[in-house]
Write a structure and sequence with these properties.
The chain is of the alpha+beta class. It has helices at 2-30, 41-56, 61-82, 99-107, 113-133, 145-160, 279-290, 293-302, 311-330, 343-355, 476-483, 505-517, 525-537, 546-553, 568-579, 587-600; strands at residues 163-183, 186-203, 211-226, 272-278, 359-377, 380-396, 404-407, 413-424, 469-474. Strands 5, 6, 7, 8 and 9 form a 5-stranded antiparallel β-sheet that branches. It has a 4-stranded antiparallel β-sheet with strand order 1-2-3-4. α2 runs antiparallel to α3 (61-82), α12 runs parallel beside α15 and α15 runs antiparallel to α16 (587-600).
Length: 601
């Protein structure tokens, strides 16, 4: 009898081991559950296991084992459903310095954490003032070219629409170091900033576009510097870190000292702000970027001999190029982007300009810029960058580009694209900064013109002999076609379709439902109850979706749709249901849902 009892116990233990393996497979196969679930093969395997237990194990042991199976399966499914990017949204109470930063501090005793945090505080205050004044001169020294372009493009649009931003009651509550990483010859630190303010966006020309109010928020600011840089303060010291000349302000598209021509914002002298990311975008892009680390390390290794190579810096360059391309398209002025575009990509831009209506962006910014591919073609290296942009377009009248024709997008929405940069494999170090209106061959100043010949040295300024120039700006379909026929090399293996993988269908749905609930400017009690009930149904941890609800109340969420149109129907169905959560369809909700059906159904 004792041996039989041990045999039964062994059988139960063995079956429980099988159960754990099958439950783990179920979690992977189910794809997140809820309305975004994607597969039922795991449930079939579970049924077969239960049947086997009933047949092979005598009563009552079989019922005990089945009971344990059901409990573990339910817990496993709940855990799988909660494994979502939405549950990783930061809250100020739970943020803490990362282990990578703590390791960096211990390995670099010369690093002054107090001084670094002071720089971040100075940058934060200075950026708020510059934003309100629509003038970046005072902060130009410590922001990257890509950051400058993001502000500059928005300022151009705001002036056309007679808009300004009123900020008051600004408080910086906490600074948390969320990540440290080495990037080629550079070091990169991400800082989570928890702050609050009253933010009122005022549009005199089109009052409907005015918005804002009090908000408490988390943003991620990314700083970069060369690893070997001997720090020479560029935040509070008004003098050039190289020649000592007084430069309290710097004009133009790059932080160049007007006297010694040192590039003050290069990262060679001090930490430079190279990215500002909203909390939801940072959470998404981190999940996306982690999938790319191995690929990016391999690309870094390929360019190991290039002292200026840095993924962060190249993503900044891609941001700069993409935004200038977008503004040239919106303003119907190809000269704005001609100098850094290859001939084929420029011809495509001019064709798009001829077909497009005149546009002004109420909002235009980049959610994510990620290096996703490298390949060699002839004697040139090519780098592909995944771009996710957010925008709200206004169509202007062709007869009078200053007069509004229609608001094309009722809310800010996202779109994915790819920009490809190329450069000669044997490229020489440039003498001037092409993206900052300098000839890369001689350093002479360039004007916005369709003439690509330098007026001083007669070289072709858009040549890839010196700098990374735009090979093309592509939709996801065009990018796939661009790479069609290439061998499946690991550095080309990342497909843009994978950009959908880090958000499940339910994540898109929940994000967009929150936008619908806030579309009329109020978040009613019934609507908040609907949001919380939906979150529970979709398997989210209730304590971790509060930041998303707060972003919706502040009208800071953007409409997100997966790039795969096959996934749209479930999302739209939930959005329709949310629009009637309070038993009435407001005009704003009706307009939004009509837009969604027209563009995504």
């Amino acid at each position: 009898m004792k041996s039989e009892r041990y045999s039964r116990i062994f059988s139960i233990a063995f079956l429980l081991l099988l159960l754990c393996l099958s439950a783990d497979a179920l979690a992977r196969a189910g794809g997140g559950g809820g309305d975004g679930g994607g597969g039922g093969s795991g449930d079939g395997g579970l049924a077969e296991l239960i049947f086997y237990i009933l047949m092979m194990i005598p009563f009552p042991y079989n019922l005990i084992v089945i009971g344990i199976i059901i409990v573990i399966a339910l817990l496993t499914r709940k855990k799988a459903k909660q494994a979502s990017v939405m549950n990783k949204m930061p809250s100020p109470e739970t943020m803490k310095d990362s282990s990578s930063f703590i390791t960096y501090k211990h390995s670099n005793p010369q690093f002054s954490e107090e001084a670094f945090r002071k720089k971040v505080s100075v940058a934060f205050a200075g950026i708020q003032d510059a934003w309100m004044a629509q003038d970046m001169k005072r902060v130009r020294k410590f922001i990257s070219d890509g950051i400058y372009q993001r502000f500059n493009v928005q300022f151009m649009m705001m002036k056309k629409l007679q808009q300004h931003n009123e900020l008051s009651g600004i408080q910086l509550h906490t600074l948390t170091i969320s990540d440290f990483r080495n990037d080629g010859a550079f070091e990169v630190i991400d800082v989570a900033i928890h702050a609050s303010m009253t933010d009122r966006f005022v549009s005199k020309k089109i009052p409907r576009l005015s918005s804002g109010g009090y908000e408490s928020f988390v943003e991620y600011w990314t700083f970069i510097k060369r690893s070997t840089a001997a720090l020479n303060d560029i935040y509070e010291n008004p003098n050039c870190p190289q020649c000592g000349a007084a430069i309290p302000e710097i004009e133009g598209e790059t932080g160049i000292c007007p006297y010694c021509k040192a590039v003050v914002n290069s990262g060679d002298f001090d930490w430079v702000l190279s990215e500002i990311t909203q909390a939801d975008d940072y959470t998404y892009s981190q999940s996306f970027g982690h999938k790319q680390l191995n690929l990016q390390f391999k690309i870094q290794k390929l360019f190991n001999g290039d002292e200026g190579f840095s993924v962060q810096k190249l993503e900044d360059k891609a941001s700069n190029a993409f935004l200038q391309y977008e503004i040239a398209l919106a303003l119907r002025n190809p000269a704005l982007a001609r100098r850094f575009m290859r001939d084929d990509s420029y011809q495509k831009l001019t064709s798009e300009i001829q077909e497009a209506a005149p546009l002004v962006y109420n909002r235009l910014y980049l959610n994510d810029v990620t290096l996703i591919s490298h390949w060699a073609e002839g004697n040139k290296n090519h780098l592909g960058f995944f771009i996710r942009k957010s925008y709200q377009r206004l169509e202007m009248k062709r007869s009078n580009p200053d007069e509004l024709e229609s608001i094309m997008d009722p809310v800010v929405r996202t779109q994915s694209m790819v920009i490809v940069l190329c450069r000669d494999a044997a490229a020489q170090a440039p003498k001037g900064l092409l993206y900052a209106h300098q000839c890369p061959n001689c350093g002479g100043t360039l004007a916005d013109t369709t003439d690509i010949t330098c007026p001083y040295c007669a070289s072709e300024v858009n040549s890839p002999n010196f700098d990374w120039v735009v090979d093309g700006v592509y939709s996801l379909g065009e990018y796939k076609q661009r790479l069609a026929g290439d061998e499946p090399d690991e550095l080309l293996a990342f497909g843009v379709d994978k950009a959908d993988d880090f958000l499940d269908v339910r994540d898109y749905a929940f994000n967009n439902v929150l936008i619908v609930l806030a579309a009329d400017g109020t978040f009613a009690t019934e609507e908040e109850a609907f949001a919380k009930a939906l979150a529970k149904k979709l398997g989210y941890n209730p304590s971790k979706i509060a930041p998303s609800i707060q972003l919706a109340k502040n009208r800071k969420l953007v409409l997100r749709m997966p790039d795969d149109p096959k996934k749209h129907a479930k999302i739209i169905k939930l959005m329709d249901k949310a629009a009637m959560a309070d038993q009435q369809l407001t005009p704003a909700e009706a307009e939004l849902m009509a837009y969604v059906h027209n563009n995504f159904a």
